[in-house]
Amino acid sequence: MKKTFRQTIALVIAFMMMLSSGNYAFAAKTDKVPPTAPTNLKTASATNSSVTLIWDASTDNVGVNAYSIYKDGKYLASSMTTAYTADNLETGSTYEFYVLAKDLKRNLSKPSKPVKVTISSESAGSSAPSSGEQQERRVVGYYAAWSSYSGFTPDKLDASSLTHINYAFANIGADFKITMGYPDKDPANFKLLQGLKKANPNLKTLISVGGWTWSGKFSDAASTEANRTAFAQGCVDFITRYGFDGVDLDWEYPVGGGMAGNSKSPADKQNFTLLLKNIREKLDKQGELDNKHYLLTIAGGAGSHYIRNTEPSLFHQYLDYATVMTYDIHGAWDTYADFNAPLYVSKSSPQFKWSLDSSVKAWTAAGFPAAKLVAGVPFYGYMYEIKSGANNGLFQPFSKAKSLSYNTISKNYLSEKGFTRYFHEQSKVPYLSNGKIFISYDDEQSIKYKADYIKDNGLGGAAIWELSQDPNRILLSVLSDSLLR
Question: Which of the following is catalytic: 133, 136, 252, 444?
Fold first, then answer.
């Protein structure tokens, strides 16, 4: 029977209504079934300006790949894990949070039960999780691109012992966009790096920009809105082109320090924060398109001068975490042989007194959340030619010094005749001496002390400089077992 135009329209409308209501035979396809709502949303830790939320994972037929966090009914951020730290909160205010799960087909779950959090001034410093609650911990490994020249390519890495790998380094071009640092090696290395995700699907890879050698253009890149936008968009273009999960900025250093020829300005202090804000916004915009959270991290200086020249209490809201470079505290530039990376200050040192503990306290006192701090751990040490064997070479003047990988120290000096290993109980680090040579380094014992410190103080994890210096994974195994197992 021939249908009238009105009858046809009516049938179409009825069919569309059936589709929207789900009353049709093929509505039960698994890719249309939303994830279950996240459960057990609660507070893991809090400071006087932030709160870390954790929840139980959702289940889904397609696969949950992100969680959307809402604050007071408005979208706040996305998380790839079942934890999120909300920053920039006001003391005395009460906030309501809930979480939705999102799967690979962009289906959204129902919201979790909300949790209300009152930010109290008494919460300051209470960033460590309470008993029985698990905080996200990271083991971040820097992979140095140049190590591939000697055969240590990314496929030699132990992906199961790492949560993040930072590929060092990308350079900054004249147009303030990031470029390959080692174009003869980088493309092949990038492919090998992404191949590690077959062994560890949760592994995140980041491109690290700058470093000591290539920080010269950071100040100019951060100096104007136009330059910041170009740099930020360049970061997005690079990571999406080469398959990275985020970008790590290693600016050495805002305002002052670094190589003599670097551009610098007093305005770097504020411009660094603005640059991070711009990058975060660009990453989030791309993340919405890709249904993914892109990471933004930095490597920051360990000393108080870095804190004075930046704004940790402001820029932390744009970061997933910050690596504090708690190594090179002492070295060839000093007057006396001393420890490369002491956990605690040695009161008897005749020169600059600083430590990993000093850095952590300075950063948190400046308003940076402990849960976002990742402590730098060196897989190398320093060898000094000392002028006196007094005190087993410790704190003695020296004629020259150089860095050595842990692998070199282990193979060539630990069992070398005439060398004795000592352990400094106050600073919690070992050293070697034969009366003419003094070597400061980290070993399994000191790494374990640092891992325990990270856990006891509610820090976000550890970052290694750098992975090729421990090819047999002696130190990496201790660090990973302590923090991740």
Answer: 252
